[in-house]
């Protein structure tokens, strides 16, 4: 399954956030393929549609979609040159599909900042620079090999060209994700396995007082993010860890007392899911309501394959009800009577919130 890696300088609040994540992990029993590793937390993707659906189909069993969040420790200035956990850190970050970058936007004289004072722009720069240096290193090695191979195989010319272009851009401080343009370039870029090509979102860690409005530092991050079209999610890691300690049934009241609708962690999970280019369809019956994760743009057979590969291989058709119709009419029977149950074939592109029933050959 797809993974978001959590990075950031020391003392920005990563461990505090990650502790909140592990405290809120899903019960591995319901997820037989769930990874159990100390630095990976599997969390439920919050979805306000699950509960109403379970009431409609009269089941108590709700299985939400999940997201894997990976704690990537050890990023310090010089990591690309082997400082700190250096290489270990780099191998972990190469394996994730997207990056959540935690940025310190809170002042606390008891908690030192590695570079002395609070300066989100500089911090973002420090981290980006390490990632880009690591990429430059791997691109330079790749370029040598590519040039050699391109002498015999002319079809590799575009690869050589992109490699050279990236080396130049990274040298100018531009991450790979911001420089590829054409589909061909995007396709080649995948084969380079660059860290700075991964999509990024910023989690700004603020003090409890600034959770609502943010502060001067969060504005600084918003400026950086706006330039590259990235999202910013405001959290207070210490409050998140308090929320995570509470029994689940007490959380809504606590959030309400803080004037929040959703915890920062839940907003972060939703944003991460979206960043990965994922959305949700449901299966809903008397036994359970189940949210399944599928790539945006995936067609019905691929979606069926998320449940079981046999569903994809033997796919015949899908019966689809829009969530809004189910909520409006209140039962599958009434949806059918209203003529709102659609029968779709192999070319159907699944939409977020579709309730699907697959017909397949075995
Ligand atoms: P890491 O090095 O990035 O993993 O940072 P930690 O999670 O260990 O946090 C460093 C210190 O900052 C710890 O003492 C935390 O309790 C504290 N801390 C984390 N988040 C916040 C916050 O939102 N506000 C304040 N005041 N302190 C925080």
UniProtKB/TrEMBL annotation:
Signal peptide: none
Keywords: ATP-binding, Coiled coil, Magnesium, Metal-binding, Nucleotide-binding
Domain of life of the native organism: Bacteria
Record domain OBG-type G: where: 2-255
SUPFAM superfamilies: P-loop containing nucleoside triphosphate hydrolases (SSF52540), TGS-like (SSF81271)
Cofactor: Mg(2+)
Domain TGS: 277-360
InterPro entries: ATPase_YchF/OLA1 (IPR004396), Beta-grasp_dom_sf (IPR012675), G_OBG (IPR031167), GTP-bd (IPR006073), P-loop_NTPase (IPR027417), TGS (IPR004095), TGS-like (IPR012676), TGS-like_dom_sf (IPR023192)
List of residues binding ATP: 11-16
Positions in coiled-coil regions: 129-156
UniProt GO cellular component terms: cytoplasm
Pfam families cross-referenced by the UniProt entry: MMR_HSR1, YchF-GTPase_C
MF (Gene Ontology): ATP binding; ATP hydrolysis activity; GTP binding; metal ion binding; ribosomal large subunit binding
Entry's family note: Belongs to the TRAFAC class OBG-HflX-like GTPase superfamily. OBG GTPase family. YchF/OLA1 subfamily.
PANTHER family membership: OBG GTPASE FAMILY, OBG-TYPE G DOMAIN-CONTAINING PROTEIN
Function: ATPase that binds to both the 70S ribosome and the 50S ribosomal subunit in a nucleotide-independent manner.
Name of the protein described by the UniProt record: Ribosome-binding ATPase YchF
Source organism: Chloroherpeton thalassium (strain ATCC 35110 / GB-78)
This protein's encoding gene: ychF
């Amino acid at each position: 399954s797809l993974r978001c890696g959590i990075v950031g300088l020391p003392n920005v609040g990563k461990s505090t956030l990650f502790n909140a994540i592990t405290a809120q992990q899903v019960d591995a029993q319901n997820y037989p393929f769930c990874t159990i590793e100390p630095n990976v937390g599997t969390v439920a993707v919050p979805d306000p549609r699950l509960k109403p659906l379970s009431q409609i189909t009269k089941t108590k069993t709700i299985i939400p979609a999940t997201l894997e969040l990976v704690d990537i420790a050890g990023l310090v200035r010089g990591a690309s040159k082997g400082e700190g956990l250096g290489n270990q850190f780099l191998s972990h970050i190469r394996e994730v599909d997207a990056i959540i970058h935690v940025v310190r936007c809170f002042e606390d004289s008891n908690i030192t900042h590695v570079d002395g004072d609070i300066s989100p722009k500089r911090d973002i720069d420090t981290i980006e620079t390490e990632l880009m240096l690591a990429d430059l290193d791997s691109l330079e090695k790749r370029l040598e090999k590519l040039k050699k191979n391109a002498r015999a195989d002319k079809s590799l010319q575009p690869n050589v060209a992109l490699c050279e272009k990236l080396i130049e851009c990274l040298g100018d401080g531009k991450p790979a994700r911001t420089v590829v343009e054409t589909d061909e370039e995007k396709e080649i870029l995948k084969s380079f396995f660059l860290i700075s090509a991964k999509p990024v979102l910023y989690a700004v860690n603020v003090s409890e007082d600034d959770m609502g409005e943010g502060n001067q530092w969060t504005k600084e991050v918003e400026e950086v993010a706006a330039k590259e079209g990235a999202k910013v999610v405001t959290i207070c890691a210490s409050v998140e860890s308090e929320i995570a300690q509470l029994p689940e049934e007490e959380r809504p009241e606590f959030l309400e007392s803080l004037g929040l609708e959703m915890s920062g962690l839940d907003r972060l999970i939703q944003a991460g899911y979206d960043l990965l280019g994922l959305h949700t369809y449901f299966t809903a019956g008397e036994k359970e309501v189940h949210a399944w994760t599928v790539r945006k743009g995936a067609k019905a057979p691929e979606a069926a394959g998320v449940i079981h590969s046999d569903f994809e291989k033997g796919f015949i058709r899908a019966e689809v009800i829009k969530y809004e119709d189910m909520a409006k009419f209140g039962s599958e029977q009434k949806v059918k009577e209203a003529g709102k149950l659609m029968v779709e074939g192999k070319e159907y592109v699944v939409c977020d919130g579709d309730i699907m029933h697959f017909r397949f050959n075995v």
